[in-house]
Amino acid sequence: MQKNTPPAELKPQPASLHQEQDVSLHSLNLKNKRILLIIGGGIAAYKCLNLIRRLRECGALVRPVMTKAAQEFITPLSVSAIANDKVFTELFNRDDEHDIGHIRLSREADLIVVAPATADLMAKMAQGHANDLASTVLLATNKPVLIAPAMNPQMWSHPATQRNIKTLHSDGIHFIGPNAGEMAESGEAGYGRMAEPMEIVGSIGNLLVPDNTPKPLAGKRAIVTSGPTHEPIDPVRYIANRSSGKQGHAIAHALAQAGAEVILVSGPVDIPAPQNCEVIHIQTAREMQKAVETALPADIAVMVAAVADWRSVDEADEKMKKDNGKGPSSLKLTENPDILKGLGHHKKRPALLVGFAAETENLEKHAKAKLKSKNADWIIANDVSPEGGVMGGDKNTVKRLSNSGIEDWPEMDKSGVAQKLVDEIIKHFIIETVDI
Ligand code: C5P
Question: Fewer CB in a 10 Å sphere around the end CB: N or C, the chain?
Answer without folding.
Answer: C
